[in-house]
């Protein structure tokens, strides 16, 4: 399955987690903008605190879910990695609750 295509085209908006200089966690909503089959890219404005946290630390995690009438009509992806404005190297989890039994897979981005 093309997990990155699902992330960009079906999910698109995700919750992103970062840490500040004191190690405190922060979350923000972000749109996944483009994928090339090897990595996935996102954008944020350079005046936002999220931008500062990404530039200073670089560690980022995200989770997103497709829309659906109920839980069993959705797919979700979580990624954890380190790279500013793209996931070049990351580990991901994919969940597809639209089928029975639900499908779960782990994947890696090695851009």
Write a compact overview of the structure shown.
By secondary structure, the protein is α+β, with helices and mostly antiparallel strands. It has helices at residues 3-11, 49-56, and strands at 13-19, 25-35, 40-42, 59-65, 75-82, 86-87, 89-96, 103-110.
What does this structure look like?
- With 111 residues, the protein is of the alpha+beta class.
- The protein is 15% helix and 49% strand.
- The chain has helices at 3-11, 49-56, and strands at residues 13-19, 25-35, 40-42, 59-65, 75-82, 86-87, 89-96, 103-110.
- A hairpin with a 6-residue loop joins β7 and β8.
- The protein contains 2 helices and 8 strands.
- An 8-stranded antiparallel β-sheet has the order 6-3-2-1-4-5-7-8.
- It is globular, with a radius of gyration of 14 Å.
- It starts with a helix and ends with a strand.
Could you tell me the number of beta strands? 8
Question: What general form does the structure show?
Answer: globular
- Mean pLDDT comes to 90
Helix content: 10-25%
* Cα Rg: 14 Å
Q: What's the tally of helices?
A: 2
Query: Can you list the strand order of the major beta sheet?
Result: 6-3-2-1-4-5-7-8
The span between the termini is 17 Å
Low-confidence stretches: none
Give, in order, the helices and strands. HEEEHEEEEE
Reported for the largest beta sheet, the result is: 8 strands, antiparallel
Strand content: over 45%
Return the structural class.
alpha+beta
């Amino acid at each position: 399955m093309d997990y990155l295509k699902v992330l960009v085209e079906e999910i698109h908006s995700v919750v992103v987690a970062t840490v500040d200089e004191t190690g405190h966690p922060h979350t923000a909503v972000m749109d996944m903008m483009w994928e090339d089959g090897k990595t996935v890219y996102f954008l944020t404005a350079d005046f936002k605190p999220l931008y500062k946290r990404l530039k200073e630390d670089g560690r980022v995690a995200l989770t997103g879910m497709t829309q659906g009438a109920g839980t069993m009509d959705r797919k979700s992806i979580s990624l954890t990695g380190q790279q500013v404005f793209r996931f070049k190297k990351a580990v991901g989890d994919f969940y597809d609750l639209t089928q029975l039994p639900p499908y779960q897979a782990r994947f890696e981005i090695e851009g």
